[in-house]
Amino acid sequence: MNILLTGGTSKVGKPLLSQLVNSPNIQQIICLTREPSKLSEWSTHPKVQIQCLDLNTSWAASDLPPSIDICLHLAGVTHSKNTEDYFLMNAETTLRLAQAVQSRGARRFCYFSSQVAGLGAGEYALSKFLAEKFLLNLNWEKLSILRPTEVISGSGSEGIDQLISLAKRFHFFPWIIDNPEVIYAPTTNEAIIDWTVNDLLDHSVSRSIKICVLSGPAISSSSLSRWIAKKYSAIPVPIWLGALNFFAKFFGIFGVHLISPDQVLRLRGKRFQVPRQGLEISRVTLPSPMDNLFLPDRKPTGV
Asked: Cα–Cα–Cα angle for 221, 146, 43, nearest 5°?
């Protein structure tokens, strides 16, 4: 089985690649990346082929390997000052890639979307929602659209990882004052990767089209704050969500971007939006490092 992997340099992609190479059912993993040096440790591995290709540039299906069984698409733009970047990379490029891999024989596609995918949650969420729609309009034997919630890796620079980084370095971190619209459902890198690999290698169903939200049990903003404060001996600095939105817009006028322009919309956006009528979204509850703080009656939201 030959797998085409994008986003192999990301915090999920790198450890995912490490696990994929250990599977006896996988003969080759082709990693598309614009920065091959970040995967240099795999350059001599017999199962790994590193191909320098920037998906944002002009390319054709003929630039891809001639035989692909599965495409595992993690690459995307998460934060950008230019909203056009979201639609170019997350939506248009995903469609181009899907059509290209189909022409090279791929009948299975696994797409890492976002828990905020949908309408009314900003341009990033909309771009992911459009990508899901594009993929659903193509013919697949197996299509897995995965919507991970917050992933705690300990080494990332976004989301909860960013809060943890601030807590470890400065012993304080921002705490969004409790708002019923802001709920988190963090899980771990390891849990996301294990589930994804098992899904990729599952051949028990001949045809499968599904959307899965991969999350830990839901917790409130205050519970998250208590956990970070206790674990890293840090002080939470309360921030009202409305004030965060106001200051972000104010400083944005002067070209200073405290957060992504649509960050607050992502926090407040409606979850579990369905890109196609009649398609159900399943929720997969994964382990979390915060077991003693779970609030199981809350639905997971947040970024």
From this structure: 110
